[in-house]
Amino acid sequence: MGAAAFRLEALARGLAEVGAEVSVLTTHPPGPRLPAQPAVKRWPVLRDAGGNVRGYVQYLSFDAPLFFRLLWSRADIVVSEPPPTTGIMVAASSLLRRRGYVYYAADIWTDALAATDAPAPVVGLMKVLEGIALRRARKVVAISDGVAEQTRQFGVDPARVVVVGNGVNTDTFSAEGPTATPGYRYFVYTGTMSEWQGAGVFIDALVLVLQRHPDVRLHFFGQGSAEAALQSRAREVAPGRVLFNGVVPPDEAARWLRGATASLVSIVPGQGYDFAKPTKIYAAASCGIPVIFAGTGDGAQMVIDNDLGSVSNYSAVDIADAMLQVLEAHDTRRATRSSWVEANASLRMAGRRAAAEVVSAVPAGR
Questions:
Q1: In what order do the strands lie in the sheet with 291-294?
Q2: Residue-level pLDDT, tens digit, the chain, 366 residues
Q3: CA distance linking residue 230 with residue 244, whole number of Å
Q4: Are the CB atoms for 227 and 244 separated by under 8 Å?
């Protein structure tokens, strides 16, 4: 449950709207089994204690069977998501089946990996694999100009790269609807918690905020490789003040967003990932609340250009100042932010644009 799932659902809906038949090859999610869906074919995979598919053996537990699943699948075109290991399986099976594929570049996976403590040889190998997956694709669908620009490092023909945009489901994430009322003011962090996002700085900022507003809390929704470290840091410096709510359904996330003072978003500067525009920005603004963005780059610029909140240096002191300003001010722009997302970042429209590009990559007569 997250940005990738919402984006791919929008793509599948867009394809269905133009009369395409869609089959989804994916995993069994952690937790209770979901109801069977004829178009969704699931495969068990190895996961870590947090429910993440992370690490070479875990990726292989999906990618190796995927190669054979694709060989046995009938399709006019295949759409591949990151990581690059999956893209390689799609490329190899497509070559054998003599059919094309579209690579849906939601991010540049190697750049995200380089922002962690992964060994240099691993990053180098993954960069080779990602380059092959991108170059062999009949078309690359990118979610932003920044992602499209980053594909150039792999020698991808710019004529085959198309930007379709990104966004959120504005029916679910909207300013109108049920609102969480826990009895205290709170900030939220939603989505993936990984090293390159560096969300621990928000816990340190909260410690400073608590000196003036001891009632405030910070809620984390989601999961990720850094979650255990964040929980440990929270117990150490702000016991009882930081709550980890895990992965929740979209309508539940929207309920907590509507009631929040602000949403916290971060990207560690200088890690090669400053081109990202995290989906959590759109989700928060669509629910009407301001965004406090810690970092630099395209995401920060989007917040500034469209008055979606404020941008802070990536430091606990500066973030705390931004949090205090929101706490001590009267917000009058909720409807304006929500309207901007509806007009500029509707996932419904992004899904339709992506679907049109996928259909256009099918050879004539198929």
A1: 242-244, 217-221, 186-190, 262-266, 291-294, 309-312
A2: 577 888 999 999 999 999 999 999 999 887 777 777 888 999 999 988 777 787 778 889 999 999 999 999 999 999 999 889 999 999 999 999 999 999 999 888 887 777 677 788 888 888 999 999 999 999 999 999 989 999 999 999 999 999 999 989 999 999 999 999 999 999 999 988 988 899 999 999 999 999 999 999 999 999 888 899 999 999 999 999 999 999 898 999 999 999 999 999 999 998 877 888 899 999 999 999 999 999 999 999 999 999 999 999 999 999 999 999 999 999 999 999 999 999 999 999 999 999 999 999 998 766
A3: 9
A4: yes
Q: Report d(CA 348, CA 205) in Å as an integer.
A: 35
Q: How many of the other CB atoms lie within 10 Å of CB of 339?
A: 16
Pair 228, 195: CB distance under 8 Å: no
Cβ count near 58 (within 10 Å): 15
Instruction: Please give the structure tokens belonging to residue 75.
Output: 């399709």
pTM of the model: 0.80
Secondary structure letter of residue 51 according to DSSP? S
Contacts of 60 (CB under 8 A, 6+ apart): 85
Three-class SS of residue 75? coil
Q: Cα-atom radius of gyration of the chain, to the nearest Å?
A: 21
- Under DSSP, the state recorded for 314 is S
What size, in residues, is the chain? 366
